[in-house]
Amino acid sequence: MTKPTRRTAALLSVLLLSAAAAGCSAAGQSGPARLAGGPTPSSAAGSPSARGFTLVASGDVLPHTSVIQRAANDAGGDGYDFKPMFSGVKAVVSAADLALCHMETIYGEEGGPFSGYPAFKSPPEVADALKATGYDGCSTASNHTLDDGGDGLRRTLDRFDKVGLKHAGSARTAAEAAGVTTYRAGSAKVAHLAYTYDTNGYPMPDGQPWAVNLMKQEKIIADARAARQAGADVVLVSVHWGTEWQTEPDETQLSLGKALTASQTGGRPDIDLILGTHAHIPQAYEKVNGTWIVYGMGDQVAGEMFNYSGARDMRGNYGSIGRFTFAPPAAAGQRWQVTKAEFVPQIMDLSTGRVVNLALHSEGEEYETAKEAVTEAVLGRGAAKDGLTMAK
C-alpha cells in the first residue's frame, strides 16, 4: 500500500533540507547545526497550510530461532521472507504519516549464520519487511545492540540504508552519533531520539564510546533541547527500559518519565512523546505533565517466551501499537498537541507465524484473552480518563 501523502511530504522535506543544509550524514540524518533553524512557512504556527499528522509506533522486533525458521519457510527455500509475518498490521502502519518500530536485534551476514537467544543475529531481510510494511524508521538502541560488537551494529544500519529506513539510538561514526534523526510528517519536522538502559554488559567497540546511546537523564534532555533548537517541531524519545515480565512500570520508568516530561525550555516541553520497549509484555500508557508516555509496547515479533520462573508465558507475544494524532500549535512558541491517542492490541500468533491486529480479529478464546490482557495493561494507570481509546 503506497502512501502518496507521506512520500510527497518526504520529497518536500528533502528539497527544503537541501536548500537549508550544507550536507547530511549517512542514513539521511542531519546534524543539529545543519538543520534549518525555526519553522518553515508550511509549519509556522497559525499558518493556513500547517498540517497535522498521525504517528504509529510499535514494540520489540525480536526474531528468535523459530521466527527465523518461519521466515525461511515463508520464503519457500529461497532466503528469508518476513513480510507475511507483518501483513496483519500493514494497514495500520502504512496508513500513518510517520511509522516507527523498535529493532531490538542486530543483523548477521547475508546468508548467515543466524542465531536467536541469548546473542541474536537476525537475517537482514527483516529490514526489507519492515520497509514493505510501511515503517519509516526504527529505534535501534537496546540491550542486544552489541550482541555482535561493532560489526553487527554496522551491518544492521547498512541494511537500513539499503532499504530506506532511518534509525535512532546507534551509530557507525562519531558524526552520525552527533546527528539528529528527523522526518517530515504533515508540515512538522519530527526528531526521533533513542536510548537503552544497558547493552548486556558488552562494552562499546574500541574507540567508539558513542556507538549506542545509553539512558541518562541529562543526555536525553540535552539532546532533546538541541533537536528543538535545530528546528524540530516535535521531539519523540524512545527508551529501552523497565523490568522484564512486570506489567507495572518500575521506579526508574516512573521517575525518569516524570523528569523528562517536566523538562521545559521557555515554558515549552522539551519532549512531546515517550515510547518505551524492553519489558516483553504490554505496559500502561499514561499522560504525565501533559505528555503521553508509553511505558512498554510489548513484543511485536517474538518466538516462544519464557518468564523468570521458566514457565511459558503467552504475554511475551502480546503487544500494542500506539497511534497518536498531532495538531499544529495555534500560536508561535506553543507545542504541537496530541489531539487523539489510541492503541491497537496485537498478538504474535505462533501457530501461524503472523502478527494479528486484535482490534479487527478477536474471535476465539486465545485472541479474546490476549485482547483483554493488552487492554487491561494499557489502561492500567487511568489513561482512559485522558482520552486513550482502542483504535477501530
Describe the structure.
The protein has 392 residues and is α/β, with parallel strands linked by helices. It contains 10 helices and 17 strands. A hairpin with a 2-residue loop joins strand 11 and strand 12 (291-294). The longest helix is centred in the first third of the chain and has 17 residues, at 4-20. The chain starts with a helix and ends with a strand. Mean pLDDT is 90; it is low at 1-42.
Brief digest:
The protein has helices at 4-20, 65-74, 83-86, 90-95, 125-133, 149-163, 174-178, 217-229, 251-262, 365-378; strands at 53-61, 98-103, 137-139, 166-168, 181-185, 188-196, 234-240, 264-265, 268-269, 273-277, 285-288, 291-294, 299-301, 318-327, 337-349, 354-357, 389-390. It starts with a helix and ends with a strand. The chain is of the alpha/beta class and 392 residues long.
Q: Mind describing the biggest β-sheet?
A: 9 strands, mixed
Number of strands: 17
Shape: globular
The domain tally reads 1
- What Rg is obtained from the alpha carbons, in whole angstroms? 19 Å
Going by CATH, what is the homologous superfamily?
Answer: Metallo-dependent phosphatases
Question: What is the chain-wise order of helices and strands?
Answer: HEHHHEHEHEHEEHEHEEEEEEEEEHE
CATH class: Alpha Beta
